[in-house]
Amino acid sequence: MLRPLGPRQGRLKCCGATLLSFKAEKLYVVRAYIHIRVEPGKVPEVVKQLKALPEVREVHSVTGPYDVIAKIEVADTKALTDFLITRIHKISGIRDTMTSIILD
């Protein structure tokens, strides 16, 4: 919620100073790891496509039950859901995913 300008802020504005305003909810970021199973032989192409997405911060091919792990940052849990459905699950070669939200 934006507050009205106080006397000091009003004087700064009159002198040409720029005041920054923001909404508190925009400061929060949801970070998550997406564990991805990939069709055989498709790991390099999936990694390449993941690296092209602006929400993706890191991508690693790994050993174990999943083939790739991606670390992502989005604005909120709704953005996370949208990202998974409209971006990740549409990448050719991805069989399934498991997402873990980072708590700390």
What top-tier CATH class fits best? Answer: Alpha Beta
Main beta sheet:
4 strands, antiparallel
The whole-number mean of residue pLDDT values reads 88
Instruction: Assign the structural class, choosing from mainly alpha, mainly beta, alpha/beta, alpha+beta, or little secondary structure.
Output: alpha+beta
Query: Would you give the CATH topology?
Result: Alpha-Beta Plaits
- Number of separate helices: 3
Assembly form of the protein: single chain
Helix content: 25-40%
Which geometry do the CA atoms define?
elongated
Structure overview:
This protein has helices at 7-14, 43-51, 77-86, and strands at residues 30-38, 56-61, 68-74, 94-101. The protein has 104 residues and is of the alpha+beta class. It has one domain (26-101): Alpha-Beta Plaits, CATH 3.30.70. The chain has a 4-stranded antiparallel sheet. The two termini are 26 Å apart.
